[in-house]
Amino acid sequence: MAKKKTVKKKTKKKSVAKKTKTAKAKKKVKPAKKPETDTSSPRTDSKNAVMIGETVVNCSHSHIIDIERAVPNPMNPNTHPEKQVVKLAALIKYHGWRHPVVISNRSGFIVFGHCRVLAAEQLGLKQIPADFQDFESEAQEFAALVADNVIPDFAETDGLKMAEIINHIDHTNFPLELTALDPAQIENYIVGPTDMPERIPDEPGDSSLMVDCPKCGHNFDAKGAVAE
User: Fold this and answer.
1) How far is C-alpha 7 from the chain's CA centre?
2) C-beta neighbour count of 129 within 10 angstroms
3) 110 and 189 in one domain?
4) Domain at 117, CATH number
């Protein structure tokens, strides 16, 4: 009978010795250098508010842009006297940005916010919050530009409510100049008008003295109760 061949399986001997470190050490990857901080770029404070320099941005916006990109519309019919620019600059400095500058995607010109840009320039700001919007045509863009200038002129002031607000602000020791009112206007709302209004001619036999208040425009009887 033929003998069966026995096949011996080769076994790998386990190495008892500890693995030694490779001669070639792994190369260490140096971390990339952090970019230098751009002080003119927007940053956030502890409350996660967007900041441009030291000015907080409290309004919604689509972009923070360099102020040079905010190009005034050469057809803007409104001019902005120094007094207006100074007052608005004071408001932006204290409150931060409450409204963005709106720029047309069609023309690249400012539609809303010409005075805000002038105020920002006076404050030395390098960047501003902007909102880029679409306009279908030049006519639509012009109409929006004009309406933004004209609509506020239709507002009428309730003198009594204004006096109540101004007095409330005054009692809290909040700076009244941040209302943008002139000192003379503020004084009128706090202590009342100093000039006696002219007498309105009465009906024959009428013993009342009807006058118009130069501050609020209300017609009242200076001798008795307020007229309806």
Assistant:
1) 88
2) 26
3) no
4) 3.90.1530.10
- With contact defined as beta carbons under 8 Å apart, do 129 and 57 qualify? yes
Q: Find where tokens 């024959």 sit.
A: 204
Amino acid at 152: P
Handedness of CA 166, 170, 176, 181 (dihedral sign): positive
Tell me if residue 216 falls in helix, strand or coil: coil
pTM for the full predicted model: 0.64
**Residues ≥6 apart with Cβ < 8 Å to 222:** 209, 210, 211
| Contacts for 9 with CB less than 8 Å, ≥ 6 apart | none
> Rounded distance, CA 111 to CA 103, Å?
6
Q: What is the pLDDT of residues 173-226, one digit of tens each?
A: 999 999 999 999 999 888 876 554 555 555 555 555 565 665 566 665 544 444
42: which 2 tokens? 């927007």
**DSSP SS3 for 85:** helix
Q: Which of 154, 172, 203 is the last residue of a domain?
A: 154
> Contact 119/85 with Cβ under 8 angstroms?
yes
Domain boundary among 109, 136, 154: 154
The total number of structural domains in the chain stands at 2
